[in-house]
Amino acid sequence: MDLSSTVSGHYTIITVNAPRIDSAAAIQFKDAMRAATQNAAGTIVLDLGHVGFIDSSGLGAVVASMKQLSGGQRLDLAALKPDVAKVFRLTRMGSIFQIHENLDALPHAKAG
Amino acid sequence: MGPVGQHMRGKAHRDLDSDPEVSKDNSITFTYETTEKGVRRVLQSARACLTTMGLDEDFCGTAEIVLAEALNNVAEHAYPGEAHGMARLRLRLTPDGCDFDLTDQGKPMPGLILPVGQLPPLAGPRPELPEGGFGWFLIRALSDRLTYTRKNGTNHVHLRLPFTHGG
Questions:
Q1: Beta strands A20-21 and A53-54: pairing type?
Q2: DSSP 8-state assignment for residue A23
Q3: Global pTM?
Q4: Taking the CA of residue A14 as centre, how many other CA atoms within 13 Å lie in the half-sphere pointing to its CB?
Q5: What is the pLDDT of residues A29-63, one digit of tens each?
Q6: Under 8 Å between Cβ of A80 and A48
Q7: Strands B154-162 and B97-104
Q8: Which residues neighbour B37 within 8 Å (Cβ) at sequence distance 6 or greater?
Q9: What are the respective helix, strand and coil percentages of chain A, to the nearest 5?
Q10: DSSP letter at A93?
Q11: 3-class DSSP state for residue A57?
Q12: How far apart are CA B45 and CA B19, in angstroms?
């Protein structure tokens, strides 16, 4: 699974460069996330702007990616496409993830 | 609504899950291998088919979500571990929705019933958050008819998506 990581101010933005996080891709996604988040500082934002489809295995892998973070790290989600947003909305993931409309909508972090 | 795709008779030379079979009742049947990649391919084919039928993106997305969960469940429970087999997905449009029939010759559902599909609790500390158990919840939340029958060694899941769904 191809992930790219960008540091922007207070945020580490991890972009998923794949069209699907499904059953066939879930384990690779979780492993790639472990590597990408290991030394990430600040708030980690998972940019799902290229992901058109996610199933419950992919959803579980996103939750698992959050659970494998260290205590001080947090994971937000951004740029959900309609079918992905539908899965997150129906399963009420908004109660455990902060979901941003797009990357431009990230709240401006205070310096320091 | 006319038939979609190439009308084909017989199964002898049909490619697996690439060329759907159109029946006289305008139903379309896909045969696929119950591997993760096989499921992914048939989902994409079925969605393309629904799009060609003129259904909107919202409905097609809902259909792909429901079918992904149902087909993955068949792949995991009917053919556990390394086992896999051929399964069939039949879809048919009706005036109020789309009917889907999934059949396979794998193992029966445990207890011969479909899981209840309650949303797992999302409260609690981070290490206890659920990583699974969402599949049947999604199927039940988005479909308005769902039945399972086991007959003559065949599993048959019937589900229906209404054109006005709550998703």
A1: parallel
A2: T
A3: 0.89
A4: 27
A5: 999 999 999 999 889 999 999 999 999 999 999 99
A6: yes
A7: antiparallel
A8: A24
A9: 35, 25, 40
A10: G
A11: helix
A12: 9
Lookup: tokens for A58: 């992919």
Count the neighbouring beta carbons within 10 Å of the beta carbon of residue A85. Answer: 19
Contact criterion met (CB below 8 Å) for A24 and B40: yes
- In 3D space, the residue among A53, A105, A55 whose CA is nearest the CA of residue A77 turns out to be A105
- Is residue B87 within 8 Å of residue B153, measured between CB atoms? no
Q: Which domains does chain A have, with CATH numbers?
A: 3-105 (3.30.750.24)
Chain B: which residues have CB within 8 Å of chain A? 36-37, 39-40, 57-58, 61-62, 64-65, 68-69, 72, 75, 119, 122-123, 126-127, 129-132, 134-135, 137-138, 141-142, 167
| Side chain identity, residue A79 | A
Distance CA A86, CA A81 (A): 9
Residues B119, B137: contact at Cβ < 8 Å? Answer: yes
- Structure letter (DSSP) for residue B84: -
Q: Is ipTM strictly over 0.90?
A: yes
Where is pLDDT greater, at B14 or B108? B108
Q: Helices marked H in B102-165 — which ranges? A: 135-142
Cα A57 to Cα B158: distance, rounded to the nearest angstrom: 22
User: Which ranges of B15-126 would DSSP assign to H, the alpha helix?
Assistant: 36-52, 57-73
Distance in Å, alpha carbon of A7 to nearest chain B alpha carbon: 25
Q: Find the closest chain B residue to A93 by CA distance.
A: B122
Mean pLDDT across B147-164: 96
